[in-house]
Write a structure and sequence with these properties.
heterodimer; A: mainly alpha; ABC transporter involved in vitamin B12 uptake, BtuC; 15 helices; globular; B: mainly alpha; two-stranded antiparallel ribbon; 14 helices
């Protein structure tokens, strides 16, 4: 393979591995900036992955699949919001519950679709993909969801920093009491941010089952939801830094596969530990600077707020 | 008319007891709905799930077998939650415990006397505690949050086991199956009753209940943990070290999870295989909350969660439902419990629009 194609292939593979982390991570970042800590990302991604897959298989349209995945992720986030914003349940426990439920529910409803092959998103869009030259083929593998993952951090960055709605959302995340005193509907804003986070997590999951793999296997998200959560901390709640972190992770994942291709013998199981170890490393590096973390974290993160009290 | 929540002057002890029961009832109703959606007879399924597994003595012993690792892991998790230390990686500590104990068992081989089993168990406890200790070190030294670290290390542990049973620890005479050799008899936990699979590990779990109650309720160490969890500011003022609490909780819960892991492989499994747990470490989180973080409560909760595993196996055989049904219902129990808990802190009042 010529070097240019190989480099491009590496870049594309990195982008594709990073895309689900960017989508889910940016969604969670928005929720956290409004003060809501939803640890259920893994569960929401799994629900998105299985729902998107099932909807695509039954309707034949990956677009409807993606829409269904976003709805499924948002529905899960709605459950979380009902518990934490409505019934005032503990956010950490509720997020864990959401993940446990999502793991089980996706496995149960996904069982009939297990290892059912479908054409990947890129193949659906470009039916003659395999006939294209290697360079073009790599370019076409960057499907619309990858483009969205590239654009989303910039859009969210702009929304948070430059728009009035973004300012209000940040205010709610810094001090719900003050935002409430100014007449903003704290719970409604947090609900919307949580739902957005869920929809993006669902989309990230569907990317895995519809474009990246593309198939449904039980527990296929394999901790990416947790890695996305770690990336939010790593980014110190900044969308562009999150995207960079996700690229780094994409690269670590791909470099592992490349090592095999270059003839460096690594057991697949040990290779699979790399992203998790990298997550721990990254968390350690960012968390040791307590002051920086504290200055950047939304001040009201994880703290419940109830008007009328 | 709309519903309004009104804070109770004090926590309702009645609802603290009733909420888990309400949650289980709602989860059972949810399960019935799920079965109907999947085209099964809900009543038959509920019977198969909750009652059929307990029809004979063997069923009860299988229940004890499933409840044992859940209870061991949950007690550690609950002590942590009391101190606001969230060990959600019990699954990983369980796995490392099994690996460490299994390694000692295989290293000693078929010889050895009475001392083999205690050594194997201690290795399992030490392995689990060490895995938890990594998270404690990273939290106290680098401020890295234990939720993510313990969880990430769980994934690492499971992959490590997968590698070991395909590599260094693989049975050379195992036809290339991913598994270790069978452990020698001296390394195996004795069963409680002839013909059953439940081992003396069930007694360890039972013994952990009063010990945990003593630790939390009657010792200074337990008091410190609770203060650190409830009022970190007051704890600092009193000179109770948060770092000590983090270390105590993660070593203790890691050790208990490690014991559960080594007991599983030196008990019903008898060797190392790639999948030694149907998610005990995660289900134990539900056990901890359902049992209200109280050791006695968790004893009952572990039996219920264990029953769901058994019931799901029965549903798989009788109704061709995937085993994952257990996870769905367990998840629903926790979701409903967290919702029902609103009643322990608040009264639900019907409020007219005029007052709203």
């Amino acid at each position: 393979m010529p070097d240019a194609v190989m480099l491009l292939a590496l870049l594309v593979a990195t982008l594709r591995a990073a895309a689900p982390l960017v989508l889910a991570g940016t969604g969670e970042l928005v929720a956290e900036r409004s003060g809501v800590l939803n640890l259920g990302v893994e569960g929401m991604m799994l629900m998105g992955a299985v729902t998107g897959f099932a909807a695509t298989v039954s309707t034949g349209s990956p677009w409807l699949g993606l829409l269904a995945a976003m709805a499924a992720g948002a529905a899960m986030a709605g459950v979380f919001a009902a518990l934490t914003l409505g019934l005032r349940a503990n956010q950490v426990a509720s997020g864990l519950a959401l993940t446990i439920f999502g793991v089980g529910f996706s496995a149960l409803f996904g069982a009939p679709y297990q290892s059912h092959p479908i054409p990947g998103l890129a193949t659906v869009l470009f039916p003659h993909l395999s006939a294209a030259g290697p360079l073009l083929q790599q370019m076409l593998l960057i499907d619309p969801l990858v483009w969205l993952a590239v654009a989303l951090p910039f859009m969210v960055q702009r929304f948070l920093a430059r728009s009035r709605a973004g300012l209000v959302l940040r205010a709610v995340g810094e001090s719900a009491e003050v935002a409430h005193a100014f007449g903003y509907k704290v719970l409604r804003i947090r609900l919307l941010a949580t739902l957005f986070g869920g929809a993006m997590a669902g989309l990230g999951g569907a990317y895995l089952s519809l474009a990246y793999t593309p198939m449904w296997t039980e527990n296929m998200v394999a901790g990416r939801g947790w890695i996305a959560l770690a990336l939010v901390v790593f980014s110190t709640w900044k969308p562009l830094a999150l995207a960079l972190g996700a690229l780094l992770f994409g690269f670590v994942t791909i470099a592992g596969f490349q090592a095999e291709a270059w003839g460096i013998p690594v057991a697949p199981n040990l290779l699979a530990t790399l992203p998790y170890l990298a997550t721990v490393l990254v968390l350690v590096l960012i968390s040791r600077d307590r002051v920086r973390l504290k200055l950047n974290a939304p001040a009201a993160l994880g703290r419940p707020f109830h008007p009328a009290e | 008319m709309r519903l309004r929540l009104e804070r109770r002057p004090a926590l309702s002890h009645l609802w603290a007891l009733l909420a888990p029961l309400l949650a289980v009832a709602l989860a059972a109703a949810g399960a019935a709905l799920l079965f109907a959606v999947l085209g099964r007879d809900p009543l038959v399924c509920l019977y198969t799930l909750f009652l059929a597994p307990l029809a004979d003595a063997n069923g009860w012993s299988e229940l004890a077998l499933k409840a044992t690792p859940l209870l061991l892991c949950a007690i550690g998790i609950a002590v942590g939650v009391r101190a606001n230390v969230w060990n959600i990686g019990a699954e990983g500590q369980f796995t490392i415990g099994a690996i460490a104990g299994g390694w000692v068992a295989l290293a000693i081989g078929p010889g050895g006397g009475w001392y083999v089993l205690p050594l194997v168990l201690l290795a399992g406890i030490a392995g689990g505690a060490a895995w938890g200790g990594i998270a404690a070190f990273l939290r106290t030294r680098f401020n890295a949050h234990e939720i993510l670290v313990t969880l990430m290390l769980s994934y690492v542990a499971v992959q490590l086991l997968g590698w070991l049973v395909r590599g260094p620890m693989q049975d050379p005479e195992g036809f290339n199956f991913p598994q270790s050799p069978q452990f020698a008899a001296a390394a195996m936990l004795p069963v409680l009753f002839e013909g059953s699979r439940v081992t003396v590990a069930a007694l360890f779990a039972l013994a952990a209940v009063p010990l945990a109650a003593l630790l939390l309720g009657r010792t200074l160490a337990g008091y410190r943990l609770r203060v650190v969890g409830l009022a970190p500011g007051a704890a600092r003022y009193a000179g109770f070290s948060e770092a000590a609490a983090v270390w105590t909780c993660l070593l203790l819960s890691g050790g208990l999870a490690g014991l559960a892991g080594v007991a599983e492989v030196t008990g019903p499994i008898g060797q190392l295989t790639p999948s030694i747990s149907p998610g005990y470490g995660f289900a134990a989180i539900i056990v901890a909350f359902l049992g209200r973080l109280s050791p006695v409560g968790m004893l009952f909760a572990s039996l219920l969660m264990g029953l769901l595993y058994l019931g799901a196996e029965a549903l798989q055989i009788g109704q061709q439902l995937p085993l994952a049904a257990a996870g769905v219902i367990q998840g629903m129990v926790l979701l409903f419990l967290l919702g029902a808990d609103v009643l322990t802190l608040y009264r639900v009042r019907l409020a007219g629009r005029a007052h709203a």
